[in-house]
Sequence to fold (336 residues):
Amino acid sequence: MLEINALKDVLAQPKRIVITTHYKPDGDAMGSSLGLYNYLIQKGHQIKVISPSDYPMFLHWLPGNAEVLIYTEQPEESKQYVADADLIFCLDFNALARIDTLGELVRESKAHKVLIDHHPDPEGFDDYRYWSTSACATAQLVFELITNVLHDGDLINKDVASCLYTGIVTDSGSFRYPNTTAAVHRIAAELINRGVENGKIHQLLFNNFSENRLRFLGHCLMNRLEVFPEFNTALIAVRKEDLANYQIAVGDTEGLVNYALSIGGIHLAILIIDRPDKVKLSLRSIGDFPANEICKKYFNGGGHRNAAGGSSDDKLDQVVEQVKSILPTYKPLLVQ
Fold:
């Protein structure tokens, strides 16, 4: 592992740089990636942001979005950028499996890899690492890297700040989660000082959905929500026909699991979605309940203690029954 402070000298001369993030990127993934992109272009580097997959339309306003390559749509061009890179920045993921088939290309690349992330248990594929599980968002770490390690805080202009603010506000649950520390609020204030239009960004992120999405939300809460008061748990299971009937697009299920968690007395919320390739799970919890332990142990996933995800190759109904069978094991933690 190379010393992160040496990165300042590495970046002193123009480099060919690739920035990538996890599959199906969210606001923190794209916000941190494009925030770093908008910083590095000011330093004269040749940069390409490559997303392993598509991502929600409500993130397409981010400055620099037009320059993003989608690996699944432009594989050959993406491969060439990875092959030619001097540096590859890996943001908001801790293992190369999280970037799907792009992961092996990154692993085989001779470029130095820079990991910037806040998920536990990094795999160890990186050469440089700026990592902390106490950070509320990877965007927070990008801000700290630019200001505290690279000493380039003056280059955080409105474009950089808008991207980083997006990452922080989305991964902190609009500044609601416990890891939203005083330091996070100070960073947000500094980003607003750099030109962030915070009201406009909130509008673009949270009040920019389709009518179909709102009707889909109503359907899920009325017909797909199950509550298990004996376990302080709520579960929403979404079927393929639900996605088809409401013409659900990428990102339209974002935040759905939080509605289940908003019920008084609920300590664990589980969203299970029957996607075309796999059944996907998103878990949210409060307090010390280890949502990531369930995902890691049973569903090939992981994440944070209070926000985690996983997947299964089984049928939706089988996954739902498996989740229900697991709950008694965790009852002592759920009802305390």
Summary: The chain has two domains: 4-206, 211-334. Residues 211-334 form a domain with the Diaminopimelate Epimerase; Chain A, domain 1 fold (CATH 3.10.310.30). Residues 165 and 322 are 38 Å apart (CA to CA). The longest helix spans residues 27-40.
